[in-house]
Specification:
Elements (H helix, E strand, L loop, with lengths): L7 H5 L3 E2 L8 H4 L1 E4 L5 E7 L3 E5 L11 E8 L5 E10 L3 E7 L3 H18 L2 E2 L13 E5 L3 E8 L2 E9 L2 E6 L2 E5 L4 H4 L8 E2 L7 H10 L8 H11 L1
Antiparallel strand pairs: 1-3, 2-3, 2-5, 3-4, 4-7, 5-6, 6-7, 8-9, 9-10, 10-11, 11-12, 12-13, 13-14
């Protein structure tokens, strides 16, 4: 179950791309499967029902075989899963999860939830911007998630993220955090606390924003610049 009980992600078992060319971001954003013979496979995509991954070079297997594996999500400790081999070709293998327990569900929730929000973020046409706004790009997604971007001469000067009634701001080379949004703030009359955020890769809000951004349709250019800032902060 996600944080607000929304069933949208589970109903369709939407797959989330994992093996993307993120370079130095890969340890934070990627996932690795560890086989019983200790071979590892990069995961191409994953959902609540299964995943597609690099076929192991040495491990022998058959279709419909059940295998106990471990999955390492980002930089977190590996979690054990039982998977059933569904299909394979010379390079890629597809498996289905089976007998998911509480710890497995929690691990999948933690990895997929915000990435699925990112998959559903949509760029808003400027004609729908309200009067007086000065941002140049606006993305809107599930659960009132918003991402606003200010640019000058092709460079990001400010970015504002609204996620689960919290706000994270990048401006002038610094990350600022606002508290919970009030009813007035939800009407865009934001009065942010400008509280400096002691950021790290473990900081929950920063990590969640990184995961959302990693799945937006245009993850290069300004998006990649912002990811560099957030990952290194």
């Amino acid at each position: 179950m996600d944080r607000d009980g929304s069933p949208f992600k589970r109903r369709k078992y939407e797959r989330v791309p994992v093996e993307v060319d993120w370079g130095s971001f890969q340890p934070l954003l990627g996932a690795i499967l560890i086989w019983p013979n200790h071979e590892t496979s990069s995961i191409y995509d994953i959902s609540y029902s299964g995943m597609a991954l690099v076929r192991p070079a040495l491990l022998s297997f058959e279709k419909n075989q059940t295998i106990q594996v471990q999955v390492s999500f980002g930089e977190k400790p590996p979690v054990s899963f039982k998977v059933i081999v569904q299909w394979a070709n010379e390079q890629v293998l597809g498996v289905k999860f089976t007998a998911l327990g509480l710890s497995e569900h929690e691990a999948l929730d933690d990895f997929l939830e915000d990435r699925l929000i990112g998959r559903h973020m949509r760029k808003i046409d400027p004609k729908f911007f309200g009067k007086g706004v000065d941002f140049s790009v606006w993305y809107h997604g599930p659960r009132e998630t918003n991402f606003y971007l200010w640019q000058e001469k092709g460079q990001v000067t400010r970015a504002e993220f609204e996620l689960d009634r919290q706000t994270l701001i990048y401006e002038n080379g610094q990350l600022l955090r606002g508290g919970k949004l009030s009813q007035e703030q939800e009407q865009k009359d934001l009065e942010l606390e400008d509280l400096f955020l002691e950021t790290s890769q473990e900081a929950p809000l920063v990590r969640r924003v990184i995961e959302v951004l990693s799945q937006i349709d245009e993850p290069r250019g300004p998006m990649k610049e912002l990811l560099k800032i957030l990952v290194k902060s």
